[in-house]
Design a protein that fits this description.
By secondary structure, the protein is of the alpha+beta class. It is about 55% helix and about 15% strand. A hairpin with a 2-residue loop joins strand 2 and strand 3. The chain is globular and about 80 Å long. Bound molecules: flavin-adenine dinucleotide.
Length: about 375
């Protein structure tokens, strides 16, 4: 057994760490406060190849692997989780689904610009009445001549509000599929007739993440925009969401590591009762527990990513990585605020942003409850 990262993995990690700390970290508080979409940083990430790490070079990517991708997501999230979320959706979910299930023509047209980061992808499964129960979506797609006509709405769509987001992959019921209770996947360009970008959500954190509602008002897309097997759209989504769960775990580890870094530094500087608070055992034990939690969660997501790279089954590992890391980061972020005392509640201290941003990791890409349901199924328990 070898726990060492390869030379390539170390290079990716170090490059992303430097970028994250030098370029993103100094801007993160301002982005959270103003809610601006930082196109310059996104374009810089694209130029460094971050959106295409695991995608083959012939399709605009770097020809790397999923371990490398997730090291990148962790390091980027260490400065600001919203950039990790952007990478999760555009690469782990959208680029992967196009690569795994697209035709050669679809890959050339849609995957290449996304893998290069020139365009950003979005993903729409959740609807007002279909969240955890994603199989109960109501959006429909009907073939009319040479076009699919899509009716319905998707909510909480990450990335879609960005000007350079050009496409959303959506799940919809087709007529044939309705009869068989199945779901198909469609590539819907943002400039399609009948595509309406709905309201921007006002979130309690992640203000730099472009989360919008999307409405399909008899939205027309060419017949060729069906992605993959029309009767397997749902299972295609579930396949890529498994990787998305590893990505959420990597985001959580990045945020938790940042909480630990800031808390270590602050606790050595902050003097109370004549001594640095780091000298008090209560603070030391908090820091020791935080370091154990971060290390375990990192080992777990890397194992899941490694199994995926080996082409091996990783449903249990990806799900448990997501569950453990997202629950862990909420505790770690809370402890980080506690260690900072009143200052930890102030916007100018990064731990306040990590605290408000940590909660959502227990919800996106499947809630903690859903993760436990999947794990129970993996354990062969009756449903
Ligand atoms: C910031 C943000 C970004 C997002 N980005 C995207 C995106 O890009 N694309 C996309 O498609 N979706 C996105 N989502 C949606 C996200 O995946 C859903 O919010 C999530 O799957 C939960 O669905 P829901 O919100 O409808 O909650 P519900 O499913 O209504 O759940 C409510 C509560 O009930 C629990 N629950 C539900 N069913 C069960 C059960 N059977 N047993 C036990 N407990 C249960 C849940 O765990 C939860 O605690 C995003 C959400 C947020 C907040």
């Amino acid at each position: 057994m070898d726990f060492d990262l390869t030379r390539e993995h170390k290079m990716i990690r170090d490059m992303c760490r430097d970028f994250s700390q030098e370029v993103i970290a100094p801007r993160a508080e301002e982005i959270e406060r103003t809610g601006e979409y930082p196109y310059d940083i996104i374009n810089h990430m694209a130029r460094l190849g971050m959106m295409g790490i695991p995608i083959p070079e012939e399709y605009g990517g770097c020809g790397g692997d999923w371990v490398g991708m997730h090291l990148c997501i962790e390091e980027i999230s260490r400065a600001d989780a919203t950039f990790g979320a952007l990478l999760d959706v555009t690469t782990s979910v959208v680029a992967q689904e196009l690569h795994a299930f697209g035709t050669e023509e679809q890959k050339r047209k849609w995957l290449v610009p996304i893998a290069r980061g020139e365009k950003i992808g979005a993903f729409g499964l959740t609807e007002p009445d279909a969240g955890s129960d994603a199989g109960s979506i109501r959006t429909t797609a009907t073939l009319n001549g040479q076009d699919w006509v899509i009716r319905g709405r998707k909510q909480f769509v990450t990335n879609i509000g960005l000007n350079n987001a050009n496409v959303i992959l959506i799940a919809a019921l087709t007529k044939k599929a309705i009869q068989r209770g199945r779901i198909s996947t469609f590539i819907v360009p943002k400039d399609s007739p009948g595509f309406i970008l709905g309201k921007r959500y006002e979130k309690i954190g992640w203000h730099g993440s472009a989360t919008h509602e999307v409405i399909f008002d008899d939205c027309r897309v060419p017949e060729d925009n069906l992605l993959g097997d029309p009767s397997k759209g749902f299972s295609q989504h579930l396949t890529v969401l498994q990787t998305g769960r590893i990505s959420i775990a990597a985001i959580a580890v990045g945020v938790a590591q940042a909480c630990l870094d800031h808390s270590l530094r602050y606790s050595k500087e902050r003097i109370q009762f004549g001594k640095p608070i780091a000298s008090y055992q209560t603070i030391q034990f908090k820091l020791a527990d935080m370091s154990v939690a971060v290390d375990l969660a990192r080992t777990q997501y890397l194992k899941a990513a490694w199994l995926k790279d080996q082409g091996r089954k990783h449903a249990f590992e990806a799900t448990s990585a997501k569950l453990f890391a997202s629950e862990m980061v909420e505790r770690v972020a809370s402890d980080a605020v506690q260690i900072h005392g009143g200052y930890g509640y102030m916007m100018e201290y990064p731990v306040s942003r990590y605290y408000t941003g940590a909660k959502v990791l227990q919800i996106v890409e499947g809630t903690s409850e859903v993760m436990r349901i999947i794990l129970a199924r993996e354990l062969g328990l009756p449903s």
